[in-house]
Amino acid sequence: MLASIKGFWKVCRYGDLYMVLAALAAQSINISVGFCQGFSAVLLPQYTHEYPQITYEQSSWIASLGVISNPIGALLGGMMVDAVGRKLLLQSIVLPNLVGWLVIAFSESYIFLCVGRFITGFTIGMSTVSYIYVAEITTAEKRGVLSALGPGLVSTGIFIVYSLGSFVHWRKVAAICAAVSLLTPFLMYFAPESPLWLASKGQMKEAYNAMFWLRQNNNTAQQELMEFTKDRKNDEEMTFRQKLALFKRRSVLKPFALLIGFFLFQEMSGIYVILYYAVDFFKSVGTSVNEFTASIIVGGVRVFMGAVGACLINSFRRKTLAATSGLLLGITMLGAAVCDSLQGPPLVKLACVLLHVSVSMVGFLQLPWIMSGELYPQDIRGVMSGATACCAYMLIFFNIKTYPQLEYYLTSNGTLYLFGICALLGAAYCYLFLPETKGKSLTEIMKQFNDDKKDADPEIGCEKKSTVEGTVVQRRHSAGAAVCLEKSNNLFDNRWTHEKTVEQRE
Q: How many distinct structural domains can be found in the chain?
């Protein structure tokens, strides 16, 4: 009991509690993302029952219109996040989300239903800013688990929608989703803006206050901001040609190509097909279990395995998790395909699909989204994360829109084989090419894509030493740990020093 109290006190004393609360506030937007992604699975069976004249093509548009606006939202969010800030953009997402759900809830025709689905899709696209915010406010040791909360909360939203859709009319489900969308702006009101974004805008006093709120430690806040501002060139001092050249750097193009490849294999492994067509998917593969019950089981499994994945991501290398997850995805999907070919027991197919969903949550589904907020340089992180998410959502839309035709031409059995083979290829891709980010600071991650010498393997977990402007800085792998820093008059720029001096006199 005494040890538990001491542990809780350390969390509060060294700032982990504030950091976790801020990360949770930002990641709460992903509950609404889960609502958007899972809604079509419960809407389509009810809607086609009410309106039997709805064609298969129209049904696919209802499902895919929740995805087609994702790239637009991602691009718009990527351009806005560096201009208005992470916090304000997270609060602004409530507007398209609320409007879209209300249009769906009160729609009286197929057209209005499609319009509502299109508008709510903006939420999914713009929500990727939550991964940028979390990556920038967390320590290297906690970044993995706190970033993994995003996919976990997406799964929570999906599970809630699946559960409600089994006994509540789809209009009421949409109204509930509209009410929950107000949660994120309320929580973000109490959280600070990203200190790194504030520092990049030259607002050093506000950046320090935000960092101190997150860390609750003066030395740690100063040292982290000092590392960020070192060798940073202000945007105001750069010409248009220099700004354009930022996007041609190896540290930008290489992670972009790697992430797009990762997303391509992710979509072709069938993860999002099961998500968007859960009820119809289980009906087509024939699992002998009520399709609504099976979808709820899938939602519950996603929530549980999302929590497991968040724990594993802090214990294993990113490359290891991604490759293992992809390998198991391929094995389970091929197992379901073989069982279907041999006309095996339907429960075996259901077990294989559930295992497929489970292992996707421990690497293959989470990591590309998490890494999109880690791999890019600070100066264009928002724009490139938005561009990456835009491409990923275009792949998801293509996958969701073409699934009915794919199933028609290849049959449900053929699609299972295709998903299984693509997952195995994805596992090999991750093992061979995926960069490692576990336990590394954002600055250290950037060095992997440059010609500079790479730091030691983060799995060792030992102390690291680095020099900052000729002074020795010693860091330990624990949030809020004591920072041994020889103070110098030149640790921070003149404006920050002047502002702090004036503040102390007051």
A: 2
User: What SS3 class is residue 43?
Assistant: helix
173-188 average pLDDT score: 93
Side chain identity at residue 204, one-letter code: M
Asked if 285 and 150 sit in the same domain, the reply is no
Model confidence over 183-202: pLDDT tens digits?
999 999 999 999 988 988 88
The pLDDT score that the predictor gives to residue 292 is: 67
Question: How many whole angstroms separate alpha carbon 205 and alpha carbon 505?
Answer: 15
Specify the higher pLDDT residue, 63 or 395: 395
Please give the Cα distance from 403 to 44 (Å, whole number). Answer: 15
Looking up residue 435, the CATH number of its domain turns out to be 1.20.1250.20
DSSP string computed for 413-473: HHHHHHHHHHHHHHHHHHHHHPPP-TT--HHHHHHTTSSSPP---GGG---EEEEETTEEE
Q: Domain range holding 33?
A: 1-191
DSSP label at residue 236: G
Residue 370 lies in a domain: yes
What distance lies between CA 237 and its chain's CA centroid? Answer: 33
Q: What does each C-alpha distance from 480 to 39, 199, 220, 224, 283 come to in angstroms?
A: 41, 20, 6, 11, 52
Report yes or no: 232 and 360 within 8 Å, Cβ to Cβ. no
Any idea of the CA torsion for 347, 367, 389, 200, to the nearest 10 degrees? 160
